[in-house]
Structures are given as C-alpha cells and as structure tokens.
Design a protein that fits this description.
mainly alpha
Length: 107
C-alpha cells in the first residue's frame, strides 16, 4: 500500500510516484513564505495558471523532499519566464525535454 502501489499496478515510469495528500502538500508549502494561491505564471502550451500550491502538489507526486521545494519553485519560475521560451520547447516537433540538475546545497 502507499508509495508501493505504483509498482503493484504497473503505472508510472519507474521514477517515484508518491500518493498526493493534503498533509504532504502542506509540509511542502511550509518551506516557503509565499501564498499558496499566488500565480507564478502560465504554463505553455495550454497556458493554464501555475500556482505555488500546484507546484507543491507536483513536487509531492514526484518524491521531492520538502526542504528542496524552494529550489524547485525557483526552477519553475525560471522556466515560466518568457525568455526561456518554454512554449518553444514544448511545441517543437523534435523530442526536447527541459532538464534541471542541481548539485550542492540549495540556499
């Protein structure tokens, strides 16, 4: 049960798939002083609003430790900046995927 369910039902891609709970999202949000409802941008290609809370939920689902959330939040904000051109990355006919590698202590 719990975190092992993804393997039992052969779902996911082998990476962590953590069940989403309100408690886990609150634990993630404890690592930022920002309002969970704040919109940090619109995510292409559909341009749905991306809130702090939505980023926290996805971080939980992917197995992120709460103390790493500030780094994830900063990375998402950078990718949503128009200069990064996330729409161009997502809408290309080639197989591009954004990737972020973090080494060392996040501050």
């Amino acid at each position: 049960s719990g975190e092992d369910d993804s393997q039992l039902f052969d779902v996911g891609d082998g990476f962590p798939l953590v069940p989403l709970t309100e408690l886990k999202v609150r634990e993630m949000l404890a690592y930022t002083e920002r309002d969970p409802k704040d919109i940090i941008g619109k995510c292409p290609p559909s341009y749905n609003e991306c809130s702090i809370e939505k980023v926290a939920a996805v971080a939980v689902l992917s197995g992120c430790r709460p103390e790493y959330f500030p780094v994830i939040l900063a990375a998402v904000e950078c990718m949503l900046d128009s200069e990064y051109n996330l729409h161009g990355v997502h809408a290309t006919t080639m197989g591009a995927t954004p990737c972020l590698l973090v080494n060392g202590e996040g501050r």
